[in-house]
Amino acid sequence: MSSLVIAALVVNVLVVAGLCYGISRRREPAVHMKVMTACFVVDLLNVILVEVAARVTHNESQGAVEQGLRSFYDNLFSLLNFHILVSVIAIVCYIIAIRTGRRLYRTGEGRSLHRKNALVFVVVRLASFVTSFMVSWEKVSAS
Fold it and tell me: Residue 69, Cα to own-chain centre: how many angstroms?
């Protein structure tokens, strides 16, 4: 397994730990907002790291995006496709959380939507976390 893949998995663990800490501090808006925003930024940087790792470790220099697109054509109901789906939903939930969280902080409105989004986010982000290890393990086993 490439050291870049291991680094991406370690970053993934750190982000989930950060999310747990951020959620535990939800009653302290200043801390909660900073931690959750930092997790979002690190998650986006991790996507770039995964892309670089895929290009470095793949013989045909295909990145993660090309591999994901090829996966959708090859087998619509694969583990990789599920991982991509929940990861994209998690990114969308991050964006919704930032918008609703800022509104909640500024006006005190929108708590219900923020909580509902948080519930969806936690489920899909944990699914993304688990499947990231499964997809990485699948690639290691194949080589």
Answer: 18
Separation between Cα atoms, residue 82 and residue 61, nearest integer Å: 23
Other beta carbons within 10 Å of 73: 7
Q: How many CB atoms lie within 10 A of CB 48?
A: 11
Q: How many domains does the chain have?
A: 1
Q: Provide the whole-model pTM.
A: 0.87
What is d(CA 76, CA 71) in angstroms, rounded to the nearest whole number? 7
Q: Are the CB atoms for 93 and 120 separated by under 8 Å?
A: yes
Closest by alpha carbon to 16, among 42, 53, 47?
A: 42
Q: Is the Cβ–Cβ distance between 119 and 70 less than 8 Å?
A: no
User: In which domain, by residue range, is 107 found?
Assistant: 3-142
Up-side HSE of residue 17: CA atoms within 13 Å toward CB?
6
How far apart are the two ends of the chain, measured CA to CA in Å?
Answer: 9
Local structure of residue 77 (DSSP, 8 states)? T
pLDDT tens, 79-122?
989 999 999 999 999 999 999 999 999 999 999 999 999 999 99
